[in-house]
Structure formats: C-alpha cells, structure tokens
C-alpha cells in the first residue's frame, strides 16, 4: 500500500546520495521526495513524470501569497 510506496520513493532518493563529503540541498531533496510520494500514492506516477503539474502548483502558490498584499481590509493599514 502507501507505506510500501513511501519506502520505495525514500530508498530511491537515498540511493542517489553517496558517501562523499559534499553539501546536499536537503530542503529541495525532501520537497522532491514529498512530491514523488504524493504522485506515486495518489496518481501512480513519479514526481519526474508529473513535474509540470508540481511546478505549476508551486507557481500558483507563490502568486497567491504575493496577492495577499493586494487585499484591502478596512481598519488595517
């Protein structure tokens, strides 16, 4: 079920890590892992296959956050 898919996605991500000493962009790695798990469990595909959807979703989130400054609430400056 879902646990197996989560483990499989995590193992796949960890297999790309090496024993070499180098910095990893952990936030980006975990973001991709999360997207991969969601894609795998919800849609049966990988993050790489649905990257366009996740990129568009991320852009929409950024646009929504940016638009919060345009909202005028009476009594607030």
From TrEMBL:
Gene3D superfamilies with a match to the protein in the record: Glycosyltransferase family 88, C-terminal domain
GO molecular function, one term: heme binding
Coarse class of the protein's main subcellular location: membrane
InterPro entries referenced in this protein's UniProt entry, alphabetically: Cyt_P450_sf, Cytochrome_P450_Monooxygen
Presence of the UniProt keyword Heme in the record: yes
Coiled coil: none
Record GO cellular component, one term: membrane
Record SUPFAM superfamilies: Cytochrome P450
The entry's keywords: Heme, Iron, Membrane, Metal-binding, Monooxygenase, Oxidoreductase, Transmembrane, Transmembrane helix
Protein's name in the database: Uncharacterized protein
Protein family membership: Belongs to the cytochrome P450 family.
Subcellular location field: Membrane
Domain of life: Eukaryota
């Amino acid at each position: 079920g879902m646990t197996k898919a989560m483990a499989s996605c995590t193992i796949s991500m960890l297999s790309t890590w090496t024993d070499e000493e180098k910095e990893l962009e952990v936030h980006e790695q975990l973001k991709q892992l999360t997207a991969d798990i969601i894609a795998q469990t919800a849609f049966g595909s990988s993050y790489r296959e649905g990257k366009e959807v996740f990129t568009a979703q991320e852009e929409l989130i950024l646009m929504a956050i940016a638009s919060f400054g345009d909202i005028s609430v009476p009594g607030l400056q």
